[in-house]
Amino acid sequence: MKIAIAQLNPIIGDLSGNAQKILDMAQQAVKQGTRLLLTPELSLCGYPPRDLLLNPSFVEAMSINLQQLARDLPANLAVLVGTVEQNYQAHITGGKTLYNSIALLENGKVKQFFHKRLLPTYDVFDENRYFEAGLQANYFTLDNIDIGVTICEDLWNDEEFWGKRNYAANPIADLSILGVDLIVNLSASPYTVGKQRSREEMLKHSAVRFQQPIIYTNQVGGNDDLIFDGCSFALNRQGEVMCRASGFTSDLLTVEFDTAQRDLKLGSIVPAYTSEDEEIWQALVLGVRDYAQKCRFSKILLGLSGGIDSSIVAAIATAALGKENVLGVLMPSPYSSAHSISDALALAKNLGIQTQTIPIGELMHSFDNSLADLFAGTEFGIAEENIQSRIRGNLLMAIANKFGYLLLSTGNKSEMAVGYCTLYGDMNGGLAVIADVPKTRVYSLCNWLNYNGEIIPQNVITKAPSAELKPGQVDQDSLPPYEILDDILQRLINEHQSVAQIVAAGHDSTVVDRIIQMLARAEFKRRQAPPGLKITDRAFGTGWRMPIASDWSAIKNNYPAKTVSTSTV
Prior knowledge:
This protein has helices at residues 15-31, 56-72, 90-93, 159-162, 171-178, 195-210, 276-294, 308-321, 338-351, 361-375, 382-403, 413-418, 439-449, 458-462, 482-494, 499-504, 509-521, 523-527, and strands at 2-7, 36-38, 78-86, 98-106, 109-115, 139-142, 145-151, 182-187, 214-218, 220-223, 226-229, 233-235, 241-244, 251-258, 263-264, 300-303, 326-330, 354-357, 406-409, 431-432. The protein is α/β, with parallel strands linked by helices. Strand 8, helix 6 and strand 9 form a beta-alpha-beta unit. Helix 1 (15-31) runs parallel beside helix 2 and helix 8 (308-321) runs parallel beside helix 9. It is elongated.
């Protein structure tokens, strides 16, 4: 039996458009002699639909589109489609009214539904808000082959691999007990750095442990802050990769199930990414492209300061929408260095994008005059510095409004973490491209991008980073060196380490305490920031649920230093 994986890029809520994408893939699959077509989790509505699911008319329309899709599909092709199904017992049991389901379509009919059993509630996931968990193992028989059906999280509960169980059930183990011939998984698994390697290692363990071939189908594309990398693949009983789809693009991949051997045959294998910088680059380009196109923007705008952050964002934007669709705006102040302007222009020339220069000196002078009486007797400080950023933010928003451009903000994760950014200034924008990219990773990305020739001017990479809001200013006037800052932030944000653990790793306790305070004080800024593309497992986005009014200083009292051994950090 030949099985096809449809690695789809849906638009959330576009039911007819998504159905057409499934139909197009089905027609291609039939030409290749396919008997079964797999599509991702919630492929009919796109993942995650979030509170669209609370609208009964949306759920009803999904059912209507599913029925129509079943009638439109080619004959003699079975298709598994991600959708929702009503929980008709909800009024009796008090459960949720919907299931996250897979529908089996064949010969013009919706023949069967399979319900997701494990519902994640961590990080960006909130499936208990909408769905009731399925209670039984899911499988169907096609041409005398018993095929087990799992949905995304159903795979992620092997206690031998993880060392614990997060849910009572292990759907893979249950299907193995039933003696199915093959397990398929329909996923919408968001991208984070290195996640594909974890997926393949986890499923290799399950394939070998349960002696089950497994086909993993993943969604691709950018949906708001989430990026889906695709990279669908299949493993034989020995845990060997039999096929792998492309990353960060739609794809149709076929693999053959040998009925005699009861195993998968070797198919086409796209090489795995060997560089984290390369996969991050591909993810960010896809995230920008899909955010712009799915929100109906054709042009991109950003401020070019001659710094490394705006440079990498400009390069990403150019790769995403093309050089003819990107405008960089230079807004020099009296404090801007000559190299900031020349570096920004050199970058624009390398990328081939248009630029516009708007000096802000006169605007700064007007603000100074307007505030002169109120600010009399005070010293020049952060308030005056931030006026420059807010002038620039106003200019960029005016251009974006006038011409219908998507404004990209250019702040990195390190700055967002400690509040080294200005509300209603450099934080303005519709999308924060590198808000989950630490400063040290920004440098790494730029060096990777320049490997085959200079794109980011070398002076941008080598000069000391500076906001240039006062004479001679550099970032390290206010912050620790980024190598130190990023390591502390990684330990605090991603690894949830205590002060004692971070100090035991070699950091100064005074610096750590200061970073904790800065992280806490900046929460109100992050709450007002544009959505930021997620590339790590702890991003300042939908999965970050920290209070604004709080006192994080108590954190160090919760982890006495005497309980921490340096051998464990």
